[in-house]
Amino acid sequence: MSDNQINLALQFLKKNSKKNTKLLIIDPLFPKKIFSLQFFLKVLDIGNFMRRKEDCIKVLKRVKILKITQAKFGIGDHIVILGKF
Fold this sequence. Notes:
The chain is α+β, with helices and mostly antiparallel strands. The chain is 32% helix and 31% strand. β2 and β3 form a beta hairpin.
């Protein structure tokens, strides 16, 4: 999702959720290794909006972040963010 799409989705969720609603956000991270399946998907433009960890956090400025972890599953590394409005 683009930054604008994320902001619109968060606005919608906040407007239609109860106070202190918790969110679990899982997002693939930008590949670290050049020769990896994750990098291959990025090159093919399937992962057009893959971000680095710091960029993921910046996009979520509307969310109060409670916990951030990094997990490896599927084809690569992911950021797992627990937050609330």
